[in-house]
Amino acid sequence: MSVRVVARIRPLLKAEAEKDQILSIHEANNGKPQIVKIPNPKSQHEEYSFNFAAAYDATCTQQELFDTEVAPTIKHLFQGFDVTLFAYGVTGSGKTHTMRGGKSLADRGMIPRLLSNIYRKSKALEKASNGETSINVSMSYYEIYTDKVFDLFEPPEKRTPTGLPIREAEGGKTVVAGLSEVPCSSLKEFEILYDKANANRSVGSTKLNAESSRSHAILCVKVTISTATETRASTICAIDLAGSEDNRRTGNVKERMVESASINKSLFVLAQCVEAISKKQSRIPYRESKMTRILSLGQNNGLTVMILNLPPTKAFHLDTLSSLNFANRTKKVEVREIENEPIFRGPPRPPTAATTNGGMARQPLRPLNSAAANANILANREAKVDKEKPAKLFSVYADKSKTTATGTARSIPQISSPLKRSAVDTLPSSRPAKQSRPATSNTSLLRRGPPETTTITKATLDSLVEKKVAEILAAREANVAAPQPVVQEQHATEREKAISAEVQARLDSIEKRLEGQEGERAEGLSYLFMAKQHQARGEDEDALKMYELAQPFFPDNQKLERKVEKLRAKLSARRPPGRKSEDEEAEGMVETDAETQPIRRRKKSRRQEVQNTDQSYQVDDQEASYQVDHREDAGYSDHESPRPRKKASKHTTKSRSRTAVRADSPDPLVDRDDQEAEHSSTAMATPRTQYLIDILNLRNVSKLKALNGLGVKKAEAIVQHLQEEEDLQLTSWHDVLNLDVRGIGKRSWEVMREGVLA
Ligand SMILES: Nc1ncnc2c1ncn2[C@@H]1O[C@H](COP(=O)(O)OP(=O)(O)OP(=O)(O)O)[C@@H](O)[C@H]1O
């Protein structure tokens, strides 16, 4: 099934005038309001039509939106399906209002209403089953701020600068390691917890929104239903994305610009992912931003609902058009509806450290041997007895149940992830997903049991660490999960069980180093992405600022230095720059830099096409989509909101392949014609190059074989060559090209590199 996309137009704000409204909602052929119309910014008498699953105008209340869009998903949640609910839109369009809402009963957003509903349904089910069914609710809440993940249940002062690492888990899911998961058994508890966590969220003031979210916030609510025979857990994730921003209008200062660059970059990558999915491309660039890795749109299982928030006025004209185009593509993204499997109970066995630890957000349940399942159930029971159940108080919502005392967020027991290895690690957990954790935590960094007392030699330690690093690199290379716990549980050997705290500490430090480097580089790359976007729109001053911000991250990059010099010269030669007209912005093509010329040519010819099809703005879904996509190609792909560059169908082969390389490259520094930047021995390796280097340094035939265009013989020849040069450690692309392996030339290395993330 596809992502359900619904549009919501927010009401006019005080400072906005009625005459400036540009959006209207219309009925589709089925008589339901589903169509959003917006004028062509260049020709007001023309309109574009976008057809969604539903469209809500400014009169839509929070209750109405919840009843029609969110409440139906709760049924699926209780049936064992995961659900993703996310709000998308430009800054100030109403995302936070929709998801979190205000304090009054009527203003409450989707999230508090969702929780209210979950608790109400849980109580009804428990009651109807005469106590045979028990339902536990727990949650994690985190933000992605400047491409780093922070636990919102932790106070900001406890944050580490690099944030929490994210990892691939089973089934391609992405999980955040070290995240708190907090049991929360009543609406009142939730309110306290949620308010406190929201106070930790990064919010700032811009000219477009006094309380602008500077981060993407992700709340994951896990509902675990246990009966006498089985336990099943499913998760609903409610995501309030930060909005894209036009920094000429936000009035952002340097700090805000940094946040903005990161927000825009992640949304840009999201748009690229959606485009790649809708075009059924083999490579979806999820990995280029943490938000897209976590959201994994199109990779996640379960229902996905996107609420497209739209500001009604023409001040946001181009942004709104961009959002509508994005949403139009998103509705074509297919998601798999896969039920989380229950865990059946079997003969009991005592709980082990691993079965009472482990567990991460959105971890799917997997069938297990009954012993493992039972161990956890036993642990759950014990946990229940031990745990002081927080008192409940319902007063605000329509929930029927009544309780008396209130708890505070502090009093809520907080189960920290096993990855943190805190004191609570030894506590039994109520999380059934942990049943699927291995009894031994030896072969994956995702699992960490309490320190074993067994002593092992330094050589063993080194070999274990090496093995672990090799696994991480292999998992990255193949873009798949690390070896799976269930299998490991069955095949664990005694020696592996002896992994000690010392090994874990060393692994931690290696991981931290890797994550830290990636984080810094990602930040630098986000400036480059922004710079490129600005430059493509002819916003040279902003582009220069972004390039300058990127410079410290790429200190020896001559290509970047040349760009900065060139832009400075261009700007100083220019008269004082005036603001461009909206028409020019829509064209987005005032740039004279050779780099953007292919796009300018493309747009011109496409604009021509639009002229020929202008008369047919159809309401019909298919046609509307076609028209929109078609027109979007005609010149709306480069306005404020980040958009991927489009491939042209009417170009020479040369220009097409050039564009394709750009779209495909994760690194703006390595456009095909710019590769000298990487060929320099001092340049930083791009992610793909780095992966290739890592694999080569491992000297592992099977990992090399997995790369594109490389047969066994060549892989063996490379490894043999590297083994002969025992001390050789490759550090750059230049080193790779200098390898003198028979039959492997520059082109072969390039093909291998391209195959790394494909
Ligand atoms: N449906 C609505 N009804 C009433 N007011 C709304 C509605 N939607 C948005 N608003 C108001 O519009 C303003 C901007 O909304 P909000 O902060 O939710 O935007 P946002 O999209 O989350 O922005 P950002 O991305 O900058 O965080 C707020 O003052 C909010 O109260």
UniProtKB/TrEMBL annotation:
Q: What GO cellular component entries does it have?
A: cytoplasm; microtubule associated complex
- The Kinesin motor domain covers which part of the protein? 2-333
Provide one Gene Ontology biological process annotation.
Answer: spindle elongation
Compositional bias annotation for Basic and acidic residues = 628-643
Where are the residues of the annotated region Disordered?
342-361, 403-453, 568-683
Q: Which InterPro entries does this chain map to?
A: Kinesin-like_fam (IPR027640), Kinesin_motor_dom (IPR001752), Kinesin_motor_dom_sf (IPR036961), P-loop_NTPase (IPR027417), RuvA_2-like (IPR010994)
Q: Which superkingdom is the protein from?
A: Eukaryota
Q: Where is the composition biased (Polar residues)?
A: 403-419, 427-445, 610-619
Has UniProt tagged this entry with the keyword Nucleus? no
Task: Give me the stretches of Acidic residues compositional bias.
Answer: 583-594
| Annotated GO MF terms | ATP binding; microtubule binding; microtubule motor activity
Q: Which PROSITE patterns does the record match to this protein?
A: KINESIN_MOTOR_2 (PS50067)
Q: Which Gene3D superfamilies match?
A: Kinesin motor domain (3.40.850.10)
**Protein name per Swiss-Prot or TrEMBL:** Kinesin motor domain-containing protein
Taxonomy, top ranks, is:
Eukaryota, Fungi, Dikarya, Ascomycota, Pezizomycotina
